[in-house]
Design brief:
- The two termini are about 45 Å apart.
- This protein is an all-alpha fold.
- The relative contact order is 0.13.
- The protein has one domain.
Length: about 200
């Protein structure tokens, strides 16, 4: 005989339970198909930091070659990190990621062309050495601002504002202090955001 007051603890899940299961599975799937974005922040934070130290300690020619090698390693590593998880995945998110990456590539390439134009116009070498990296940091800061605004990410928006402040400050630091300001400021900011993202990922 069934007890009408008995509650079956093994009954069907509630709507809240079902939603929790769906969210858990979505998070598990995303972790398999999406790269850990914190790794990119950590990678490029370390590269900015290393570049700033190199230009502060070494002569410009040696520092330039060393920086080119470090950046090349960073580009290859970024490509590998970004390609592996998303292999075989298609859809709107993939297209959005492609456009986002292209936006960065186009913006930074434009900075390179602009700097070449400055040199062609005869801008003095000392001014170039101060203004060129500051211009690069300004564009990077603007891109992080847009990233934060697009995805409603406070850390990215704050990082963008911070990088732009560091870029302006580096101009007033002069040579060779500007390199150290950019390395510590931009690199340190990226590493802080990487740490925040890693901490948030562990708590999720």
């Amino acid at each position: 005989m069934n007890d009408p007051h008995h509650t079956d603890a093994e009954g069907p899940p509630s709507a809240a339970d079902a939603l929790a299961i769906i969210e858990r599975e979505q998070a598990r799937t995303s972790s398999k198909v999406m790269p850990n974005i914190a790794l990119f922040y950590a990678l490029w934070g370390a590269i900015w930091l290393a570049t700033g130290v190199l230009f502060f300690l070494l002569d410009p020619a040696t520092a330039s070659w060393a920086t080119a090698a470090v950046v090349a390693v960073g580009v290859v590593t970024s490509a590998v990190l970004g390609a592996r998880p998303g292999r075989g995945v298609t859809g709107a998110s993939t297209r959005q990621g492609l456009f986002y990456g292209l936006g960065w590539a186009i913006s930074l390439s434009a900075v390179g062309v602009f700097v070449a134009g400055m040199a062609a116009l005869g801008v003095p070498g000392t001014a170039m050495a101060v203004l060129s990296p500051a211009l690069l940091a300004l564009v990077v800061g603007a891109l992080y601002l847009l990233t934060g605004a697009t995805w409603s990410s406070i850390p990215d928006f704050a990082l963008g504002a911070w990088v732009m402040v560091v870029a302006v400050a580096s101009v007033f630091a002069g040579l060779p202090g500007n390199s150290l300001v950019l390395g510590l400021g931009v690199g340190g900011g990226l590493l802080v955001v990487a740490g925040l993202r890693l901490t948030r990922g562990r708590r999720a």
